[in-house]
């Protein structure tokens, strides 16, 4: 029987590339569309080094309706995983129109073409950012969606509403929204990982670059929060665990099991860790010191959030398997790989 075809938009990116190798591992035929605005073509080599198969790849902008129509017509995907988006929170405040155009229009194009070509399901990359600072922790999918604090976060909320309204209009496909917490680490092979493009905004790439001596010192953005050690708390999930959640979600959408037309899942470990705890865990796990200092709070940071992943555990049969130590070790192995002079 011909393998089912999955269109992975943004598949050359951090989470998309890790999801691609997990889809290939269970026999899906992956077609990647990526405009390489935040990745590069070398990722294909990394994917092939892991899975043995170089996926079909189109360097196309997901907003290009005509180009995307040709791809849908040629490949008739059974399912879509929509990763393609701009994701830097700070940049979104400076360039809101770029974020609304890129993140919202690219989704609308996929939904319109899914209707036209009979695609059966979409998995959408959402984010725990839609919860803002939850009043109750751990946060469940029933927690209220609070007003977004950035155009990026707002684009995710708007996209969820667009999908909800589209499904409600009676289309012939189903959708799963995965609300990611904080993905970290890299594939254990170190063949793929988070590309170091520019000064890292996120904690782990900045931490590993500091450990590698690329950055002088890591600044902890505040230690005066109402948390045990004063630094912010997040739910850090190994990117491979996150990738595997997408495989389970697409299996569910394309499988025979009748499910609700729209389902939402928190994809986190269910465990919170503070910034200072992360630094100490990294140092213990790798034996490498991370020069760091306490600095002022970063504007817009929420104090603490971590997932209640019970629904994903029970309904998807998925749970995070990796420890924080394993995730941090994989991040360090990737950093060492890309820091080598020959790379
Ligand atoms: P990433 O930037 O590594 O990957 C996104 C990919 O999409 C990149 O390869 C980029 O080139 C591509 N892309 C962007 N706009 C495009 C367009 N118009 N057409 C085609 N390709 C386009 O980011 P990531 O960390 O892998 O995130 C993937 C998705 O997960 C995003 O939707 C992001 O908002 C979401 N997300 C990420 C995190 C995180 O912490 N990394 C957390 C929650 C949600
Ligand atoms: C984690 C913690 C910082 C850097 C962001 C987006 C979110 C999602 C994931 C896309 C915070 C602290 C960080 C540093 C630090 N992205 N920190 N020093 O802010 O939880 O989430 O990325 O969907 O939408 O908001 O992740 O890694 O930036 O920060 O102390 O140099 O590390 O204050 O507490 P965040 P992060």
- How many strand segments? 13
What is the makeup of the main sheet?
7 strands, parallel
Helix content: 40-55%
Beta fraction of the residues? 15-25%
Coarse morphology: globular
The SSE order reads: EHEHEHEHHEHEEHEEEHEEHEHH
Structural class per helix/strand content? alpha/beta
Report the end-to-end length measured between terminal Cα atoms.
41 Å
Instruction: Give the number of helices.
Output: 11
Bound small molecules, by name, code or SMILES, are: nicotinamide-adenine-dinucleotide, UDP-4-deoxy-4-formamido-beta-L-arabinopyranose
Tell me the strand order in the biggest sheet.
3-2-1-4-5-6-11
Give an account of the 3D structure.
By secondary structure, the protein is an alpha/beta fold. It has 11 helices and 13 strands. The protein has helices at 14-25, 43-51, 65-75, 89-94, 96-117, 151-168, 203-211, 239-254, 275-286, 310-316, 324-339; strands at residues 5-9, 29-33, 56-58, 79-82, 121-127, 174-180, 182-184, 218-221, 233-234, 236-238, 262-267, 273-274, 292-295. The strands form 4 sheets. A 7-stranded parallel β-sheet has the order 3-2-1-4-5-6-11, sandwiched between helices. α9 packs across α11 (324-339). The longest helix is centred in the N-terminal third of the chain and has 22 residues, at 96-117. The N and C termini lie far apart (41 Å).
């Amino acid at each position: 029987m011909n393998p089912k075809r999955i269109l992975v938009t943004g598949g050359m990116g951090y989470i998309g590339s890790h999801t691609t190798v997990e889809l290939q591992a269970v026999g899906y035929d992956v077609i990647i569309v990526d405009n390489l605005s935040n990745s590069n073509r070398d990722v294909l080599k990394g994917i092939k080094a892991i899975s043995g198969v170089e996926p079909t790849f189109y360097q196309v902008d997901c907003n290009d309706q005509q180009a995307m129509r040709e791809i849908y017509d040629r490949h008739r995907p059974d399912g879509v995983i929509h990763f393609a988006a701009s994701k830097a929170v700070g940049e979104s405040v400076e360039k809101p129109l770029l974020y609304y155009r890129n993140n919202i229009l690219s989704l609308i194009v996929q939904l319109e073409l899914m209707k036209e070509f009979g695609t059966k399901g979409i998995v959408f990359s959402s984010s725990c950012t839609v919860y803002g600072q939850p009043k109750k922790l751990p946060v469940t999918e029933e927690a209220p969606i609070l007003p977004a604090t950035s155009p990026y976060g707002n684009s995710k909320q708007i996209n969820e509403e667009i999908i909800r309204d589209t499904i409600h209009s009676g289309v012939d496909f189903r959708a799963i929204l995965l609300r990611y917490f904080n993905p970290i680490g890299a594939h254990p092979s170190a063949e793929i990982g988070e590309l170091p493009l520019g000064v890292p905004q996120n904690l782990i790439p900045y931490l590993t670059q500091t450990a590698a001596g690329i950055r002088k010192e890591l600044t902890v953005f505040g230690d005066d929060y109402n948390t045990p050690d004063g630094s912010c708390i997040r739910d850090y999930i190994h990117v491979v665990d996150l990738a595997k959640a997408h495989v389970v979600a697409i299996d569910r959408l394309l499988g025979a099991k009748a499910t609700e037309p729209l389902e939402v899942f928190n994809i986190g470990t269910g465990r919170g860790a503070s910034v200072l705890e992360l630094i100490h865990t990294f140092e213990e796990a790798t034996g490498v010191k991370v020069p760091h200092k306490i600095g002022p709070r970063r504007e817009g940071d929420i104090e603490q959030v971590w997932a209640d992943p019970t629904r994903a555990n029970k309904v998807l049969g998925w749970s995070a398997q990796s420890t924080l130590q394993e995730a941090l070790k994989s991040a360090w192995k990737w950093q060492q790989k890309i820091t080598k002079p020959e790379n």
